[in-house]
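User: Show me a protein chain along with its predicted structure.
Assistant: Here is one chain, sequence first, then structure tokens.
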Amino acid sequence: MRDGFIRVAAVTPEIRVADCEFNTESICRSLDEAYGCGAKIIVFPELCLTGYTCGDLFWQERLLRSAQEGLRRVISHTDGHDGLVFVGLPWEKDGKLYNTAAAVSDGRLLGLVPKRYLPNYNEFYEARHFAPGRTDVEWIDFDEAAVPFGMEILFCCDVPEGLRVAAEICEDLWAPNPPSTAHALAGANVIVNLSASDEVTGKDSYRESLVAGQSARLLCGYIYAGAGEGESTQDLVFGGHNLLAENGHILAQSERFTCGVTCSEFDIARLREERRRMTTFEPCEYESYERVWFSMDEEETHLTRRFEPAPFVPSSQADREKRCEEILTIQALGLKKRLQHTGSKNAVVGISGGLDSTLALLVMTKAFDMLGLQRGQMTAVTMPGFGTTDRTYHNACELTRRLGAQLREVDIRDAVNRHFRDIGHDPSMHDVTYENCQARERTQVLMDLANKNGGLVVGTGDMSELALGWATYNGDHMSMYGVNCSVPKTLVRHLVRYYADTCGDAPISQILYDVLDTPVSPELLPPENGQISQKTEDLVGPYELHDFFLYYMMRFGYAPAKIYRVARLAFENVYDGETILKWLKKFYWRFFSQQFKRSCVPDGPKVGSVALSPRGDLRMPSDACVRIWADELEKLRAL
């Protein structure tokens, strides 16, 4: 359970209707399979000890006694196994019959949770047999032990830290006010649902959306175990649809019409961080909730859930194209509003032939089209310097012409050489001064041209550069509106490719494809044999790694060791552990040391769940110390 991960399972066993002995044996076999997978929270379907479709047989005392005998065998089977197991059975109490979930751990019955909402419509008639569960908890006797009975029970364990589990049953989730809502506000971060939901056309999609949606609203993990093969097919068929969801995302689900174990891992630490961050998630002190403790040994959880190496970029092409169109529109609308508000009829951008400035120009074009302004009122300025190559220069100029913007060329070399003389810098010294003088000269040109034309300067820097501080302070760091400020480098590439694929203009597409093939570079050092000599990723590290680090640090508050762990899984066949650790150390050092640049960045539109604006998502002191993060990374190196 290191790093807050815990393996969970939803299980559909093979059953026979009203054959509790067979069902118990099947449940125990399935338990062994789930234990073998390392599962610590294991959930079986609704009324699985008897079968959901027993009908009026639920009134038979022999069936009820047989179900309790089966429960005793399940309890005994868990002896010596830590974790938490939920099985469904009918339970008689005070002359009424209840549809319950029995919670079992290490040879003891922890509690019984009754179903609250009983469907009595269409094919369902549960109210014929069962009474609705009550919220308040009473204590009943079972085999000379006191056991809590009621809906308001939290099953608590501090391995992983803060684990709190609560249960609801099938229709409870479909109701307007599911019990899981109160459970979550009382502290539950894992909800289990023992279900017997029959299959009709399209119901699986609805079921999936319910489970995913509830896990998102409650910021929780949700385990849904569905009844399957063996239930009566007199009128219905049950598909054994098992679902594991975490905070809106389906981590794993079974194929329908099968039996078996569906496993994944919940990240309890991540869920707790989400709740800390979300001020609108307001937990309540429910004094009526009974807290029942169980224990688990801390051990390593083998991770099977997938960590996308490009978390900012949707993996499917359809989703990626939709996301790209949406982001381009958000960027363009942000710039459109700023142009309208300032009364600007002109906008200026420095165009280098690289990815970021190319995207900024494409966004400007979209914004001007939205405003009904002539594209000729856009000014794209190419400013050749000591590192400019023919390839990037040609692409910058041709793209500007093809898009219909006004092209201005301002060669900065003479101005920068004069500045070197003014400050007494030797131009043969290719140090940070040599580089930054060029960046600041370019920004001065853009600002003054914008003043001259009554326009504003559109910034090109992206979020990855902001995270790393890979920008010249008061150089490319500064603009009047930064359209790319919350777009990570890995996503910039896809936005440009999407435009190239969909613009319908072959020459523009060809230019964009060549821009995509050009190495990322500030082009501030002289070329070697006409080729780019200064490649950004050789200096600061691969952007795909840095974007991965940024996402998990900012979005979920992962600690360095946890980021390293999941990065090794995500990039298993790309980078070795030593390389990942090297660049992770670089990332943290730059992120903390360069906050002063982010504290005064220009306005720009937020486009995703991670952003670094000091006015929005990141209020971080510029002199925060990186020591405790760096110390954790040093411990990893020692290992």
